[in-house]
Amino acid sequence: MSRSVMLVVALVLVVSVWYPAALACGDKFLMVGRGAKFQRVYASVHPGKILIYARPSTDPKAAIRDPQMHKALRQAGHAVSVIEDWALLETALKTAPTDVILVDASEASKLAASIAASPTHPDALFVAFPSAVPPTDVICRLKSSDKTIRFLDEVETVMKARSKRAKTS
After folding, report:
1. Tell me: the pLDDT tens digits for 85-137?
2. Distance CA 74, CA 90 (A)
3. Beta-bridge mates of residue 49
4. Strand duo 123-128 + 100-104: pairing
5. Containing H/E element for 92?
6. By three-state DSSP, how is residue 147 classified?
7. Are residues 81 and 112 in contact, defined by beta-carbon separation less than 8 angstroms?
8. How far is CA 73 from the centre of its chain?
9. Which three-class secondary structure state does DSSP give residue 75?
10. For the stretch 96-113, what's the b/e string if a residue is b when 16 or more beta carbons lie within 10 angstroms of its beta carbon?
11. Is the pTM of this model over 0.85?
12. Which of 142, 138, 169 is nearest to 155 (CA)?
């Protein structure tokens, strides 16, 4: 009987010594509500200045007008400005440094001259809207119905390419 008591006491001592170490493992991230939220984890490696041209007539359900998408871009580390007037967009391109412009694909022909006049020569990410047929010479990598993560990925891809071009220049 004393041998079984000694075994139980030894087991209790081992468990009490290892229990705090078991709590220190990374398993806390697997517990519901204790892990890092995805929105906080996604941070851009190449943050940039993003200009979004969203016409007032644009569908309010479109991602380009979605305040949550703008917030996600800001949380990722980008500086985001939203403009709804074409004259203000042209002025901003001439005066403010801009890396990426998110704009409706139907505005591509007007935007080319403004980008050429801009001192920073921003890259344009054209967004295809279902109600408009995009020009054939424009590549639309984004759709107005895309999720926020798709916009974040495309902006990151463009910023990575701009960073590589800046290093080679």
Report:
1. 999 999 999 999 999 999 888 888 888 888 988 998 999 998 887 766 666 67
2. 23
3. 79
4. parallel
5. helix 86-95
6. coil
7. no
8. 4
9. helix
10. eebbbbbbbbbbbeebee
11. no
12. 142
